[in-house]
């Protein structure tokens, strides 16, 4: 009887908890739907589009989700796609008088993404003749690079402009790993392939130092030229200002050196905007958001479509939910499946592959490359390179009908490596574990814990990596119409900027996403078409309703934890070591560290 009562009580408690969880899911889903259905403002005559620069600039805005709210993290970021669409719509909308850039806690983005946003602001002024005003209490270097395009750059009298140049500072784990008895077995092709260095060295190799210096100077040179043109300052003057650490200088000095135009508090900014707009004192300024202006734009629907497919993140062989330590990923199976759908969709006449990836699995890159070749056989495929299209990111790009890149895009990195941990010292000496084995064949225990590779296994792994590099360079040679030895000469794992890549034949032209779409339309012989974006972004509350709840919360928790330490990259590597196929990567260095 006692046992029976226990079972009944357990059943009642279980049912009650299940009902409580179901009610909670319904409540948060309703709240999410209500929040997502927020209405937009009308864009009335005399409106100003306000862009608040805060957080991180990403390709597409990441919606807030329940776990990020609970954990107190970022609840979304700046989506380049929405900003570009808003700026374009504002140029064409006669009710929009100008753009106000309000700088908050802006963490920036990859140089190429910021360059694309800045170029859109430059084009806005050129096409519309309208004004841009910027204000900030503190301009980070990225924020100042963007806001220097403004007709008037305003700064708080006690504020600062942080203009200091670019640096890259990789972190090396080698000695830390030695302390715990772990070392890495490295197999690679490419003297510039530096992603392995943090785990086997304590400083940058000379080839790596050479390539980093080269692309840093390319990016910095472009920033100097663009800011200098807008502010009427020479590269020499801007370099001198960077050497003085402007963030440590009084704001009045920045005014003297023409980095800013006005020193004023926020109330002074609002007064200046009221004067521009002829708005009476005490009345609200007619601010509208990019989303408001986009919603007000008149759009036409056409039968013919150009699909823009966003391939963002690390390229992984496993499904995204199986790599919970990953953030945004290009998962092999999902990507191949979605590209196959675009191939069979008769209304899609051309595809623009928007690549923003440091690379990843060499095997997964090959599978995606293959599907893109099948797609290209049916319709034009144009690649638009964003912040990064390097290593595996270049692998999936190289066979396109045409490749466009931003001048600051980081690309190339044509190389392969395998990075396999050897924890035998940790296990057998420090933890005093003992291993034995019974096997039927010479390599039945390949990759077993408790011992490093032997000479034969190491030779096989190196040969496997070299075959991967040969295939990679062959794919590039076929796609770019170059001899394979020429690809090897500019390959070797070296990273190039888009500006440099154009000169050596890795890309066809410099241009932004709109230029790539125009090129796709030209190849498909389209004059009237509709742009559609893939993959579809699903709000978090819909994910909760359709995904396994445990998987959803586990994935979001791991995603939140992944930002806690740079050493999470080490955990990603350990998580991926399942087969030789999975541990061979075509990837850039793990941490770009441009600041």
List keywords for this structure.
595 residues, 7-stranded parallel sheet, 24 helices, single chain, globular, 8-stranded mixed sheet, alpha/beta
Any overview of this molecule?
- The structure is a single chain.
- The chain has 595 residues and is of the alpha/beta class.
- 46% of the residues lie in helices and 21% in strands.
- The chain has 24 helices and 21 strands.
- The strands form 4 sheets. Strands 9, 12, 14, 15, 16, 18, 19 and 20 form an 8-stranded mixed β-sheet that branches.
- Strand 1 (47-58), helix 2 (66-70) and strand 2 (78-79) form a beta-alpha-beta unit.
- Residues 66-75, 320-326 and 546-566 have low confidence and may be disordered.
Structural class: alpha/beta
Mean pLDDT: 85
Number of strands: 21
How is the biggest beta sheet arranged?
Answer: 8 strands, mixed
* Regions with little confidence, pLDDT below 50 for 5+ residues: 66-75, 320-326, 546-566
Q: Give the % helix.
A: 40-55%
Number of H- or I-type helical stretches = 24
Straight-line distance between termini: 70 Å
* SS strand fraction: 15-25%
Radius of gyration: 27 Å
The general outline is globular
């Amino acid at each position: 009887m006692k046992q029976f009562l226990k079972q009944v009580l357990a059943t009642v408690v279980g049912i009650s908890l299940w009902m409580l969880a179901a009610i909670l899911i319904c409540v948060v889903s309703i709240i999410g739907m209500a929040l997502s259905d927020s209405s937009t403002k009308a864009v009335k005559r005399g409106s100003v589009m306000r862009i608040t620069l805060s957080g991180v600039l990403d390709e597409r805005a990441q919606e807030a989700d329940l776990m990020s709210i609970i954990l107190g993290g970022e609840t979304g970021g700046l989506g380049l796609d929405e900003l570009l669409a808003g700026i374009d719509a504002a140029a064409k909308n006669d009710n929009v008088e100008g753009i106000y850039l309000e700088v908050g806690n802006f963490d920036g983005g990859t140089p190429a993404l910021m360059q694309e946003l800045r170029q859109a602001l430059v084009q806005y002024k050129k096409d519309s003749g309208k004004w841009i005003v910027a204000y900030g209490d503190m301009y980070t270097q990225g924020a100042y690079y963007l806001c220097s395009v403004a007709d008037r750059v305003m700064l708080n009298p006690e504020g600062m402009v942080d203009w200091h140049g670019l640096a890259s500072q990789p972190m090396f784990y080698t000695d830390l790993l030695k302390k715990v008895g772990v070392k890495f077995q490295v197999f690679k092709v490419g003297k510039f392939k530096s992603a392995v260095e943090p785990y086997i060295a304590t400083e940058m190799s000379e080839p790596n130092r050479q390539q980093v210096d080269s692309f840093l100077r390319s990016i910095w040179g472009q920033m100097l030229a663009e800011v200098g043109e807008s502010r009427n300052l020479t590269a020499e003057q801007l370099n001198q200002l960077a050497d003085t650490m402007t963030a440590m200088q009084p704001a009045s000095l920045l005014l003297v050196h023409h980095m800013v135009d006005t020193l004023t508090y926020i109330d002074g900014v609002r007064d200046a905007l009221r004067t521009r707009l002829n708005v009476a004192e005490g009345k609200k300024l007619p601010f509208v958001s990019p989303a408001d202006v986009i919603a007000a734009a008149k759009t036409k629907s056409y039968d013919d479509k150009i699909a823009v497919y966003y391939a963002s993140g690390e390229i992984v062989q496993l499904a995204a939910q199986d790599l919970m330590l990953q953030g945004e990923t290009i998962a092999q199976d999902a990507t191949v499946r979605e590209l196959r759908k675009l191939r069979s969709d008769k209304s899609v006449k051309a595809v623009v592959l928007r690549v923003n990836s440091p690379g990843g699995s060499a095997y997964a890159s090959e599978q995606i490359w293959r599907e893109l070749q099948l797609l290209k056989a049916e319709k034009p495929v144009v690649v638009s390179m964003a912040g990064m299209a390097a290593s595996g990111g270049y692998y999936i790009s190289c066979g396109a009908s045409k490749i466009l890149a931003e001048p600051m895009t980081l690309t190339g990195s044509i190389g392969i490596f395998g990075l396999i941990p050897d924890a035998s010292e940790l296990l057998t000496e420090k933890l005093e574990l003992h291993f034995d084995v019974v096997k039927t064949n010479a390599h039945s225990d390949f990759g077993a814990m408790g011992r490093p590779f032997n000479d034969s296994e190491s030779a096989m792994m190196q040969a496997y990596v070299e075959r991967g590099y040969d295939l990679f360079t062959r794919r590039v040679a076929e796609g770019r119409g170059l001899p394979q030895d020429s690809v090897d000469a500019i390959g070797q794992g070296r990273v190039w900027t888009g500006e440099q890549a154009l000169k050596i034949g890795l890309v066809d032209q410099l241009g932004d996403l709109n230029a790539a779409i125009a090129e796709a339309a030209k190849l498909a012989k389209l004059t009237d078409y509709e742009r559609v974006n893939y993959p579809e972004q699903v709000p978090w509350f819909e994910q909760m309703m359709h995904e396994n709840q445990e998987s959803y919360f586990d994935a979001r928790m791991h995603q939140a934890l992944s930002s806690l330490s740079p050493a999470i990259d080490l955990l990603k590597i350990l998580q991926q070591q399942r087969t030789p196929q999975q541990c061979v990567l075509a990837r850039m260095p793990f941490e770009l560290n441009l600041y």
